[in-house]
Amino acid sequence: MTDADASPDGPEVGPANGAAVVGARPEDARAIAEVHVASWRQAYAEQLPPAYLASLSVTDRETMWRELLQAGRAQVLVAQSGESIVGFAAFGACRDDEPPAGRMELWALYLAPPVWSRGIGRALWQAVEAQLRAQHAASVSLWVIESNERARRFYSAAGFELDSGAQNTFTLGGVELRELRLVRRLAGRSAGAEASSFV
């Protein structure tokens, strides 16, 4: 959507309800892919055909994430609960045409469905935000499917706003979907500005 390297040997960013946010390693690719596919299947169960969702390949996504991590083309953080990865976020350079100076992009943020609404998504976003600020990003954008109301509520609570007029349409499994661009300004804004309403 959902780039400088996330250091695989970096320190923990912080705990969230029993989960710790850390830099991803190439060997995490399988677990990241499993979360990615499980989240899509749950989030879009009523919007996309069952056959399409069943066709989503963990193996294909494992290959994609492993290549990204090995090549250092994305910064990726994972949320770990015990020995298990239960969520991840990927971010980096904005991939839009002619983005404004200082614009970064949140490429993806996904959680395993059993840990939804436990504060782990918030912790992942806050860890991403901290790294973006450390890299002096002025703003961050993301693309979200219009019909994914849960995700849109999450990003609104995190301070993202609709970039009016910025949208794309595409087809998955024979269903036409529209995605919207959301933007959050970082420069000159307190990291805790939305803390009271962000759940």
Describe this entry's structure for a reader.
This protein has 199 residues and is α+β, with helices and mostly antiparallel strands. The protein has a domain at 14-138: 3-Layer(aba) Sandwich (Aminopeptidase). It has five helices and eight strands, in the order E-E-H-H-H-E-E-E-H-E-H-E-E. It has helices at residues 29-43, 50-55, 58-71, 120-134, 149-157; strands spanning 14-16, 19-23, 75-81, 84-93, 103-111, 139-145, 161-172, 175-185. Strands 1-2-3-4-5-6-8-7 form an eight-stranded mixed β-sheet, with helices on both faces. Helix 4 links the parallel strand 5 (103-111) and strand 6. Helix 1 (29-43) crosses helix 3. The protein starts with 13 loop residues before the first strand and ends in a 14-residue tail after the last strand. Mean pLDDT is 87; it is low at 1-15 and 193-199.
C-alpha Rg (nearest Å) = 16 Å
CATH hierarchy class name of the domain at 14-138? Alpha Beta
| Continuous helix count | 5
Indicate the percent of residues in helices.
Answer: 25-40%
With strands numbered from the N-terminus, the spatial order across the biggest sheet is 1-2-3-4-5-6-8-7
Gap between N and C termini: 21 Å
What is the CATH architecture assignment of the domain at 14-138? 3-Layer(aba) Sandwich
Tell me the series of helices and strands, N- to C-terminal. Answer: EEHHHEEEHEHEE
pLDDT under 50 segments (min length 5)? 1-15, 193-199
Reported by name, the CATH topology of the domain at 14-138 is Aminopeptidase
How many DSSP E strands? 8
Largest sheet: 8 strands, mixed
